[in-house]
Amino acid sequence: MSKFKKKKKGLPAISTASLPDIVFMLLFFFMVSTTMRETDLLIKKPFLPTASEVKKLEQKSLVSTIYVGKSKDSRISGDKIQVNDKIIDVKDVPSFIYSERALRKEEEVKYMTTSIKADKEASVGTILDIKEQLRDINALKVSFSTSRGNDLSGNYK
């Protein structure tokens, strides 16, 4: 018998010295790359209609969004129109577009698009009134937000 015991050689422990650096690097990455919601919805979140042929908007910085839907307050009936963080009336749509144009450079104004995010239960009359107001002020680039789908039968669930 020997007096000395042989030590078992195994794998050394993984060093965790650089772990805080990695965690802070990931935290910093997500803080920089994440965008916060620009608008708080005062209406119920629109349940968008589906469409089979959709196209993504190129320059989102040149898009002015108009939300149409039911109020979160169940006592208020009818469609509500929201722009930025306020509820407006149909007749206030031109002033919203003019204020959005004022924020842009002169050469960017002709590329501006108005996006209408309307709930699929919203009244067509409300949407037509908005389109008429946009036509009156020569804001003719209008897009309608939809969700991607394949149901072309018109039967919504």
Q: Notable features of this structure?
A:
single chain, 5-stranded mixed beta sheet, 7 strands, alpha/beta, 157 residues, Nucleotidyltransferase, domain 5
Describe the structure.
With 157 residues, the protein is an alpha/beta fold. It has a domain of 99 residues: 2-Layer Sandwich (Nucleotidyltransferase, domain 5), CATH 3.30.420. It has 3 helices and 7 strands, in the order αββββαβαββ. It has a 5-stranded mixed sheet with strand order 4-3-2-5-6, with helices on one face. The protein is elongated, with a radius of gyration of 27 Å. The relative contact order is 0.18. It is a single-pass membrane protein; Single-pass type II membrane protein. Its main location: membrane. Keywords: Cell membrane, Membrane, Protein transport, Transmembrane, Transmembrane helix, Transport. It comes from Lutibacter maritimus. It is found in: Cell membrane.
